[in-house]
Amino acid sequence: MPVERFLAAAAGVVGNDHVIGDPAGLAPFARLMLPVPEEEHAPVGVVSPRTVEEVQALLRLAGEHKVPLWPTSTGRNFGYGTSAAATKGQVVLDLRRMNRILDVDPVLCTALVEPGVTYKQLQDHLRAEKLPLWIDFPAPGPLVSPIGNTLERGGGLTPYGDHFANSCGYEVVLADGTVLRTGMGGVKNTTSWQAFRYGYGPFLDGIFTQSNFGVVTKMGLWLMPAPETHRTGMAVWPEWGDMAKLIDAMRPLRLDGTIGNFGVLFDSTLALTASMKRADLYAGPGAVPLDLSIKTAKSKGLGAWHYLYTVYGRADRVAADWKAIERAVVASGGTVIPDVPDPMSVGELTLQAFSLLNWVGGHGLAWFSPVTPMRGADAARQMEIARAVMDRHGVDFMTGMTLNGREGLNVMPMVFDRSDAESTARHRACFDALIDAFAAAGYGFYRTGIGFMDKVAAVHGTAQIDVNRRIKRALDPGGIIAPGKSGIRI
Ligand SMILES: Cc1cc2nc3c(=O)[nH]c(=O)nc-3n(C[C@H](O)[C@H](O)[C@H](O)COP(=O)(O)OP(=O)(O)OC[C@H]3O[C@@H](n4cnc5c(N)ncnc54)[C@H](O)[C@@H]3O)c2cc1C
Predict the structure, then answer these.
(1) Which pLDDT band, with edges at 50, 70 and 90, does 1 fall under?
(2) Per-residue pLDDT reduced to its tens digit, 172-216
(3) What whole-number distance in Å separates Cα of residue 303 and Cα of residue 325?
(4) Taking each helix axis from N to C terminus, what angle separates 243-255 and 315-331, rounded to the nearest 10 degrees?
(5) Cα separation of 390 and 431, whole Å?
(6) What distance in angstroms lies between residue 292's CA and the mean position of ligand 1's atoms?
(7) What number is the average pLDDT over the span 254-265?
(8) What digits encode the pLDDT tens for the residues 385-398?
(9) In the predicted model, what is the mean pLDDT of the chain?
(10) pLDDT tens-digit profile of 387-439?
(11) Position 349 confidence tier, pLDDT thresholds 50, 70, 90
């Protein structure tokens, strides 16, 4: 069997202790939260290198044995695929042992890390060195990695919340073992690899995100100088129908920088997940009724829509921006709850978002993540489309949308009991129907999970599929790196 021969050869590179081929050892790498069958994505092995040279050797061996490798950094892509691959039969290239913080520059506020470094490890380092620098985290920050998250173009909530936009300089191992340093990284004795993203000639970093063109073994990221002061508020609007006017009121404040961060806009049901379980709210048929959700939220001092935002900087600026935002919120029919704690927007690690998983229990989670043009009418239309499809499938509507000036990432969690086959199948059907409904209305996607990658790639058009395939064939003609990722194959 090619896989067994590959794993035996891989053990010669990384050592027996860092190769897994037995079913018990593989089980944790196959575990999914998504509503798709684990057997359609199950890995057949795991190899864990420690160095770039070992990654090169493993890619060469994978090419010889024609065994596909699925790279993961910390492998905690919860709700998008965790460690599992787009297709079954791949060997997970688990990069957690490559976990060195290679550089932190307190002058230019940059870091250079390996794939296994977690956000917590980096923050502990900054604190130990007493550096006044903030890191932007995704919600599972303590557990996950800057490289894994950035390669998915994931995000957090501070002004540095667009992680790809704040990454700078990659080291990538290609399928033939070539080591490429992007941006300024090719200059001998480079002095500016983490300072200037674009380098000279085509800007290549983007093609290594949400793709399968190489294995990223180092990445630079930018750190935010701790601001002099900051203040977080939560704007609350009472009615479902307030969506269009609240978006039109907040957009100008994001566009002109008054609201500096990627604040999150969330609905009544997502708000309730922080303090209650579904069973305590509703035991009837179908999805949680909207009026019950909003009524219950109001009884807790909340509303139909909530927007957590933070202002940063010198005290006089924070005070002036705070007032301008409050005026706009009130003019659009909302109220402001001042000084709400929001650890993520002020660079503090937290796992509080995981309360979402207690809503029904059973560890089912799928993020449905369309992009919203930041017009009130579009945001309202997306909410109506999503709720109609979800109601039809008996799925609870929730969203946590990050607001940018021109676009919002309308990240809708679908939570369900994965041990309940009927509910799992219903959530899968709902996810498929949502893709169809959003595509029919002209909306595309920021990211998606394994099991839905081909379908989402098709929404983005055959020319993109074709060009990605041509790049894949040029860089990885044997198709050994992560076949199926984002719908890309040779
Ligand atoms: C409650 C909850 C809240 C969440 N909130 C957020 C959030 O706020 N923001 C957010 O972005 N996500 C969020 N997530 C989703 C997810 O857990 C994070 O995005 C997480 O950072 C991804 O896991 P990871 O960092 O371990 O990446 P990995 O799983 O290691 O990598 C993700 C994918 O990137 C590719 N990849 C990884 N490393 C490499 C490499 N070195 N070379 C080539 N390709 C590679 C692979 O395709 C891999 O499958 C949330 C999940 C949960 C459960």
Answers:
(1) confident
(2) 999 999 999 999 999 999 999 999 999 999 999 999 999 999 999
(3) 18
(4) 160
(5) 9
(6) 34
(7) 96
(8) 999 999 999 999 99
(9) 97
(10) 999 999 999 999 999 999 999 999 999 999 999 999 999 999 999 999 999 99
(11) very high
Q: List the beta bridge partners of residue 171.
A: 181, 218
> What is the atom index within ligand 1 of the atom nearest the CA of 148?
27
Structure tokens that stand for 175 in this block: 């399928």
Backbone angles phi, psi at 64, to 5 degrees: -60, -40
Could you tell which of 56, 98, 151 is best to mutate to test the pocket of ligand 1, judged by most ligand atoms within 8 Å of the CB?
A: 151
Query: In angstroms, what is the span from residue 295 Cα to ligand 1's centroid?
Result: 35
Report how far residue 363's alpha carbon sits from residue 417's, in angstroms, rounded to the nearest whole number: 6
Domains and CATH numbers, the chain: 2-96 (3.30.43.10), 101-225 (3.30.465.10), 229-440 (3.40.462.10)
Cα 44 to chain centroid, rounded? 25
Active-site residues, by number, are 80, 446-447
Pocket of ligand 1 (CB under 6 A): 71-81, 95, 115, 138-140, 144-145, 147-149, 151-152, 154-156, 215-216, 353-354, 356, 365, 482, 485
